[in-house]
């Protein structure tokens, strides 16, 4: 089964070599990553901003044009999953534990250090900018990739590979050898980008789980505790992905949605509901009306290079790193839906849900800070801020336990989705990859994730978040450039196909 599988061997070989340096030369590897990331951010930061804006505008144009009625598949194809299950799966795969990691810490940081000065109050600016970094642009990266790959997969009947979106390269490269090499290189790059983005999230999530357990038990489990947590999550993810999309991933994803809604409602009704709703619409209005200048960091909406480097460029790199596996996973579960429904379902629905989530937790945290009369950095630590936050509410033990369970579940669904997609990539692009491929990728991702945790603990003045900020800026750039080419090919092929249909 694995014989002559160059894509599998090449990808795993590169990852194992990099893992070797992570395990045995952690400090030297981190130093190199740090210096390289500074160069990338200096010269390509604005490129990330422009790419994000273009993806959002292009998707909106496509959704509300006559082409929005085109299905991913034939006219007779019907969706495999209910709309609720579909949204639950795409949301769990696309956002995951990040909303728990940043629920309190990010809005409070923006509240204490407003990145822009637009003559509005600090709470509105804080939520407006949090919306910007978690909203339409993030989901646009996923959606554009999902639609492009889904189009070639279900309309053009291509294989489930990233390179299917670059089939038109044959028009410009006539040599079979060169063309095949380029397509293989694209698939390897997509695999590597997927792995780096996924293990970054797993590293952050497991560190938060370990931080939460340490906070609740007052026992510091350290790096070894984080690794044990990682092994448990990896085992659960393997069980889920081994069972498949319907029996494993769908069930866990639905639980994630119900669990987060329960947590959201608990916080919402412990506070002034009308104040939260009013703040949501107010912040949403400022976000939407200022979306273009925000996206380009233009004039008064420019937070400065230092802030962009630490926050926005990192976020854009993170979303881009997740685009290959999240996009293909969304494409895989979206057969039979129209482009309009997919764009609205991926771009708008999850964004609005995320906005209300951050408004509820953010406004509650703002109120707590105002009631205290002074802020002593209670919510500064990204790994335990949400646990400290719930100490101000009843049933804190039950609620914080629920947070940890949700963190585990979100990480499992992100990891199992990635394992499933990576297995599709290396199992000749089939829609139901073999279980041997799923086992292999479960092992490889666990090995690499441990290496990432070691990287994030090489120096006392850094943590895994700092390390991932620097690493993803580097690893996502090649894929970001490829995405530009993919968009051009997709528009060309799709428009030609529609013209033929309309004749």
UniProtKB/TrEMBL annotation:
It is a multi-pass membrane protein. GO terms for cellular component: plasma membrane. The chain crosses the membrane at residues 7-27, 47-64, 84-104, 131-154, 188-209, 221-242, 249-269, 313-331, 343-366, 402-426, 438-456, 471-491. It is found in: Cell membrane. The keyword S-adenosyl-L-methionine does not apply. The keyword Membrane applies. Pfam families: BCCT. PANTHER family: HIGH-AFFINITY CHOLINE TRANSPORT PROTEIN, HIGH-AFFINITY CHOLINE TRANSPORT PROTEIN-RELATED. Belongs to the BCCT transporter (TC 2.A.15) family. This is Glycine betaine transporter.
């Amino acid at each position: 089964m694995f014989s002559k599988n160059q894509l599998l061997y090449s990808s795993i070989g590169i990852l194992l070599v990099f893992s070797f340096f992570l395990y045995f030369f952690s400090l030297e590897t981190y130093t190199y990553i740090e210096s390289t990331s500074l160069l990338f951010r200096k010269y390509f930061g604005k490129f990330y901003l422009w790419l994000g804006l273009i993806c959002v505008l292009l998707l909106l144009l496509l959704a509300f044009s006559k082409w929005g009625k085109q299905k991913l598949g034939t006219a007779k194809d019907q969706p495999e999953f209910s709309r609720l299950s579909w949204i639950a799966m795409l949301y769990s795969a696309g956002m995951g534990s990040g909303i728990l990691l940043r629920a309190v810490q990010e809005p409070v940081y923006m509240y204490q250090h407003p990145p822009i000065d637009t003559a509005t109050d600090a709470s509105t600016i804080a939520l407006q900018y949090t919306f910007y970094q978690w909203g339409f642009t993030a989901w646009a990266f996923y959606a554009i990739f999902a639609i492009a790959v889904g189009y070639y997969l279900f309309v053009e009947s291509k294989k489930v590979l990233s390179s299917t979106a670059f089939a038109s390269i044959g028009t410009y490269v006539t040599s079979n050898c060169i063309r095949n090499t380029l397509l293989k290189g694209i698939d390897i790059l997509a695999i590597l980008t997927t792995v780096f983005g996924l293990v970054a999230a797993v590293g952050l999530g497991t560190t938060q789980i370990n931080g939460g357990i340490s906070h609740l038990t007052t026992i510091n489990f350290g790096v070894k505790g984080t690794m044990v947590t990682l092994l448990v999550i990896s085992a659960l993810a393997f069980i889920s992905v081994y069972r498949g999309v319907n029996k494993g991933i769908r069930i866990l994803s639905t639980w994630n949605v119900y669990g987060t809604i329960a947590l959201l409602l608990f916080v919402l009704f412990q506070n002034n509901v009308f104040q939260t709703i009013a703040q949501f619409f107010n912040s949403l209005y400022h976000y939407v009306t200022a979306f273009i200048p925000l996206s380009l960091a233009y004039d008064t909406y420019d937070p400065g290079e230092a802030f962009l480097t630490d926050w926005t460029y990192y976020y854009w790199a993170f979303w881009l790193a997740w685009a290959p596996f999240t996009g293909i996973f969304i494409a895989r579960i979206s057969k039979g839906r129209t482009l309009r429904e997919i764009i609205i379902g991926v771009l708008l629905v999850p964004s609005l849900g995320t906005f209300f989530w951050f408004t509820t937790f953010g406004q509650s945290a703002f109120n707590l800070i105002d009631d205290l009369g002074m802020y002593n950095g209670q919510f500064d630590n990204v790994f335990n801020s949400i646990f400290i936050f719930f100490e101000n509410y009843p049933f804190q033990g039950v609620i914080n336990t629920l947070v940890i369970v949700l963190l585990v579940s979100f990480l499992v669904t992100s990891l199992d989705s990635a394992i499933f997609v990576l297995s599709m990539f290396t199992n000749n692009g089939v829609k139901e990859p073999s279980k041997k491929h799923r086992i292999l990728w479960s092992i490889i991702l666990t090995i690499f994730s441990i290496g990432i945790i070691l990287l994030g603990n090489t120096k006392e003045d850094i943590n895994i978040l700092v390390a991932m900020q620097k690493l993803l800026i580097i690893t996502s750039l090649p894929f970001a450039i490829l995405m530009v080419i993919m968009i051009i090919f997709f528009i060309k092929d799709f428009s030609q196909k529609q013209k033929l249909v309309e004749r």
